[in-house]
C-alpha cells in the first residue's frame, strides 16, 4: 500500500451526489474511508465488502453531539484523519424578497455552520499530526451570483471567505485547504437536495427570477457535469504535491468565473483613480 492509500478520509453527506461518488472512488482507490449521512442505512452499501478499511456513521452536521461522536469513532478505529471532505449541503430557490427566513437560516446551519463545526472538530487532530487536507465544497455560486439563489450564494460566499482565512492559518501545520467550485452536475441538487420558496410575487414570474426557476427545472437530470469525473478530480487534488486553494469543476464554472473576474478587474481599473484618492495624501 502506498503512503497516499494509507490516508484516512472523512466525508460528509454520502447518501447521494458528490459525497457518494467521492466515497466510492476513494474506497476503490484503496484509502481508508469514513462515510457519513443523516440516515446511516442509506450508506451501508458503500462499505459492504470493505469493512476493514471503511466505517459508516450517522452524521447530521447540525448536531454537535453526532459530530463529536463520529470524529471520535474515526480516531478510535483508524488513529487519524488525513482528508476531510465537507460535502453536506442543501440549496434554496427564491428571490431575495420572496425567501423565507426560517428556511434560509436552516440552510446556513447546514452549508456554513455545519461545515465549520465538523472542521473545528477535526482540526485538533490534523494539527497534532502536522498534516491534513480539508476539502470544502463551495460552488461556482461562491464566486458569482444568479437570480433566485441569493441566500444560497450567501452561504457559499461565506464558505469561500472563511476557507481563505483558514488556509493561511493552518498552512504552518502542513494542512491544505481546497475549495471545490462546481457548476451544474447530475447530483439532483436542484431536486431533493434543494428547497423552493412557497411564496410567489406575481411581478417576478416574468422576470429573470421566473426564467431562472424554469431553466433549473428543465435542466434537472440533464446537467453537463459528471459527478463521477468530479470525484476523480477531488482525488487528483488530494494526491497533488501542491494542491490548489480553488478548483473549478465544469465548463460552465470556468466560463462564469472568467467572465466575473474579467469584468471585475475592468471595473476596478475604471474606478482606480477614485479608489486611490480615498486615502490620506502621502
UniProtKB/TrEMBL annotation:
<dbReference type="InterPro" id="IPR002347">
    <property type="entry name" value="SDR_fam"/>
</dbReference>
<protein>
    <submittedName>
        <fullName>Short-chain dehydrogenase/reductase SDR</fullName>
    </submittedName>
</protein>
<comment type="similarity">
    <text>Belongs to the short-chain dehydrogenases/reductases (SDR) family.</text>
</comment>
<dbReference type="Pfam" id="PF00106">
    <property type="entry name" value="adh_short"/>
</dbReference>
<dbReference type="GO" id="GO:0016491">
    <property type="term" value="F:oxidoreductase activity"/>
</dbReference>
<dbReference type="InterPro" id="IPR051911">
    <property type="entry name" value="SDR_oxidoreductase"/>
</dbReference>
<keyword id="KW-0560">Oxidoreductase</keyword>
<dbReference type="InterPro" id="IPR036291">
    <property type="entry name" value="NAD(P)-bd_dom_sf"/>
</dbReference>
